[in-house]
Amino acid sequence: MASKKSPPSPPAAAPSPKLPAETHQTAVEGEQHLTTNHGLPISDNQNSLKSGVRGAVLLEDFILREKITHFDHERIPERIVHARGSGAHGFFQPYESAADITEAGFLQDPKKKTEVFARFSTVAGGAGSVDLPRDVRGFAVKFYTEQGNFDLVGNNIPVFFIQDAMKFPDVIHAVKMEPDRGFPQAASAHATFWDFISLTPESMHMIMWAMSDRAIPRSLRMIEGFGVHTFRFITAEGMSRFVKFHWRPTIGSAAVVWDEAIKISGADPDFHRRDLWEAIERGDFPEWELGVQVIEESQAAELDFDLLDPTKLIPEEIIPIRMLGKMVLNRNPDNHFAETEQVAYCPSHIVPGIGFSDDPLLQGRLFSYLDTQLSRLGGPNFHQIPVNAPRCPFANNQRDGLRQMQVHKGRVAYEPSQISPPGAPRECPVHGFRTHPETETGEKIRKRSETFADHYSQARLFFRSMTPPEQNHIASALAFELAKVEVVKIRELMLGHLGHIDADLQQTVADALGMPVKNSAKVQPAVSPRDLAPSPSLSLIGKDPHTLKGRKAGILITDGADAGQLAALQAAFKKEKAAVELIAPKIGGATTSDGTLVEPHHSLSGGPSVFFDTVVILASEAAMGDLVREAAAVNWVRDAFGHLKVIGYSPEAVPLLEAAGVELDDGTIALDGAKAIKGYVTTAKGGRRWEREPSLRSIG
Ligand code: HDD
């Protein structure tokens, strides 16, 4: 009932305010009706049921209640780790039969494509966190094979923080936001993380990777992936070998610089998700080769570390990668929640021809994922959700349970049975999965193997395999993160560990922190670190493919910009298979020299140069007066220069470069003719100008 005090209702005859036709969609004959979840057609989706137009809403309104109730339950528990992810559909196709090393069905026939769903994620942040924190990236792929689903649940870093699953909740609690204050979100730069790490020497190798450029990738399309653990490949004849899985992006790997990552996080928190989505929408399908390092069981004993230790890798220079085939991601999800959120990967999902090793981290994971899906997806039937369901037939005697979607028929849900109908599921000793019959002996014991005890040699190997700019980035990242740790003894302990990795690194980080190196805490390694031969294949800069393929160029245009140059640049980028976006001072457009009104993708303030791999400024002299006084324009250029990008510019744009403090070098190229465009493109293919960095930025 309307309150007596309220002003009188307008007369019933008063016309209700008119909404634009398209916001008030009513079905016409033959169109689908909006209905309740139970199929009742809904006549009005704009107004709740009230007593009078200004009166109280009635409890009777079951349509309102159903709509709100469903909305209230739209969220499910987010993943405890890897909560923020982006997914895509695609396929995997082998190059040739791998029957000599595995009987896995999807690796036998080069003509056969296997459907996949891949999900890439950050680890520490919540589902709504940004895409570019310094963090490990998850790289999970579900292969829907004819022998059931194979889930390869890896990361973009080939080693891990810990050696035993017993420590997983600890390392995750340490990195996640601190429980009393609820921050920092998606960041390892805080005391609890470094407290745990400084007391966990086995993390040191992983720390080198996590502080490297790998942890701030330019694009999910450019990350490498690793299975991390040692797995087994088993042939049809029962021959078993150890393997390490590798994913390699065909367009090469690249990272952003830290200052850029921070700015991207503000300008576009969805930077990676958008990039993946848009690349697939424009037909620029991301591709990865899948390969394995194959290790004969007899070879395993000769390696200078234990294959069961997930904090170690095998340099490619020692055991090369055999490429097995290619994955192409060619379809975006239809629905982010239904697919990317509900996809449930489990390392325990394997197929005949693939087996586990006794890596204690892997063994713990074999339990954890199924367990977490039970609560995350509300019960034991999550395999029936379309993105999780095998594409091959599946049948067993498991029944009922929460969220049961199948209607199982018949009276027999067990075996053996004499009354089950013909065709009832039976076990299959010939084609069924068999565990590799490894001999296990040993006393029950809670103890770490001594073969896991060398925590510094491979950390050193990684650091010394980096190019000088990459080494500087590791030192800078360590200094940045440790500077956020207010507890001095944690910093001193970390400096102590760094001393065992590399004395120069220790000194550089100490200097950047403004702490005397002599204050480093004494750390007694369980095994003295050794000098292993560097592995150049671990460096990203060292294997930069020098290409613009899959990269994005940004062209800043103003009124009067040279139309011919714009067309020539667009054609040149297209030839290189690079995407191009235009930026203009105003989103309404810029009129180029031939009088064409060009519509940009971004206005200046909405399209900062951090979005692009290389940039061009095509400006007229007349536009300079305004641009040099416009912070968005000056920052656009200053950032592009500071982020070491190759910059092409029309000679008229020089005042803007000067206002931005750009010092012309080999990576700043005046576009004063067709030849100049060619030279600019060749230089831009070379990627960032690392030689510019030391004059712009100190370590720390
Ligand atoms: Fe994990 C999710 C990768 C160790 C327990 N993990 C998860 C995802 C990836 C990884 C990519 C996200 C999958 C998706 O996109 O849905 N995890 C790894 C790697 C590890 C690793 C490469 C070490 C080599 N994880 C690890 C351990 C445990 C877990 C040791 C527990 C004992 N991981 C989980 C989990 C998650 C998970 C709690 C959270 C959500 C989920 O599983 O589905 O079960």
TrEMBL record:
Protein name per its UniProtKB record: Catalase
* Record keywords, A-Z: Heme, Hydrogen peroxide, Iron, Metal-binding, Oxidoreductase, Peroxidase
Catalytic activity reported: 2 H2O2 = O2 + 2 H2O
* Ranges for region Disordered: 1-25, 414-444, 523-543
Looking at the record, the residues that make up the Catalase core domain are: 35-423
Q: Does the keyword Heme apply?
A: yes
Please give the family membership noted in the entry: Belongs to the catalase family. HPII subfamily.
The cross-references to SMART domains, in alphabetical order and at most eight, read: Catalase (SM01060)
Using the record for this protein, list the coiled-coil segments as residue ranges, or answer none.
none
Q: What class of enzyme is it?
A: oxidoreductase
What CDD domains does this protein's entry cite?
A: GATase1_catalase (cd03132)
Name the cofactor(s): heme
Per the record, where are the segments of Basic and acidic residues compositional bias? 435-444
Q: Which Gene3D superfamilies match?
A: 1.20.1370.20, 3.40.50.880, Catalase core domain
What Pfam family does this protein match (any one)? Catalase_C
- Record's keyword annotation contains Thylakoid: no
Summarizing the function annotation, the protein's role is: Decomposes hydrogen peroxide into water and oxygen; serves to protect cells from the toxic effects of hydrogen peroxide.
Q: Which GO terms describe its molecular function?
A: catalase activity
EC number assigned by the record: 1.11.1.6
Compositional bias annotation for Pro residues: 7-18
